[in-house]
Description:
Distance between the termini: 64 Å
Strand content: 5-15%
Strand order of the largest sheet: 2-1-3-7-9
Bound molecules: iron/sulfur cluster, FE3-S4 cluster
Largest sheet: 5 strands, parallel
Shape: globular
Number of strands: 9
Number of helices: 22
Structural class: alpha/beta
Helix content: 40-55%
Amino acid sequence: MSSCRVRCDGISKLQPDDNPEICGAEFLPKKCVAISLVARKTAAMAELSVAEALAHSGISRRDFLNFCGTMVAILAMPPRYVAQVISALEKTTRPVLVWLEFQDCAGNTESMLRSSHPSIEDMVLELLSLEYHETLMAGAGKQAEAALKRVVEEHAGKYLVIVEGAIPTADGGVYCTIGGRTALDIATEVCGNAAACLAVGACAWDGGLVKAGPNPTGAVGLQEAVPGLKLVNLGGCPHNVANTAAVLVHYLTFGELPALDQFNRPLFAYGQIIHDQCERRAHYDAGRFVEEWDDEGSRKGWCLYKMGCKGPDATYNCPTVRWNGGTSWPVKSGHGCIACASNRFWDTMSPFYKPLPEVPGFGVDATAEKIGWGVVGAVGALTAAHAVGSVIRGVKKKDEPDESDSATAEEAKPDSPKT
Length: 419
Ligand code: SF4
Ligand code: F3S
């Protein structure tokens, strides 16, 4: 029997007999969150401030303060802003949030829910009054669609929208319909009337996997489907909830969105090249590379460049913010970065296990404005040259070429035009 994480005791009007299936003693954490959402609505919690909502939810003052400090750190702001964030969140009334899912795998929702308690994910669910979320809400069918309609009518220009998934445009958008309406129609109305929108995950940003060739449904990201929105793109596959929370905290504290790059991604999260933040960088600099899975270098944590790591051509803050409550990130766990937060990464960064120079579109990802397109390509080119140089050093040392790596062995030949 799973333990109950529902924080609706004392505020829910539901009784076990109302719905024994989800109000009984045994249910999954996800359903706990679902019933918690119902509880908030039925108990009119939408009018509570963030601080009041946190208190109702059993989140301690200490956890709240830690959360504010973490958010300021993620936003790359000086520590003196912590007090301002605390003050703002204590006073502000939680804005209404609508979460739309279109062509998606629900991975971004899952990323929000896979949490330890209390966590950033828990906090996010308390920062906002979540009025509509197909996966989480207990209501369904006409009842659910009526809730969405009510938000658009009663909170026009004030509510926030999080969009997960791509939007099909081929054949009039018929490849994704909800309640008889196309995703394109829903996004146009709901996002068009919002104060701001957050596109979470690769699919909502640039179409992601759904837009990858051959894209039979004509899928696009939100900004292409509905141009002109006040929008933040939080790419990644999935999004990192810590970054999404930081954007929301910035909005609630300062009344505006954080600084964005040319892809409308927040600079605090997408402004630095992963390669420059990587804990394996010293091995890269020393020319120590993993040559095959589970070799000695793999067990010693050497650089994964030759196993296809795209870190030199990708930007994201996952090396510092990490995943699973800050436990780890892909490269730390032993797998190369596949640049999941980069533009059109399914098409431009595959094959994922080939070193960068063999990847079609290498160097097309752009970083933050101040870094610029060319620098990224230069970083990638220098990376390739560095890896080649490392092999050459290895050749001289061992006095024989490494035939296991055809590309670098070719580079190492004396008559190779690239040397
Ligand atoms: Fe880290 Fe990948 Fe760069 Fe190696 S190539 S230092 S594993 S980001
Ligand atoms: Fe994605 Fe690469 Fe980070 S695959 S999670 S950007 S290490």
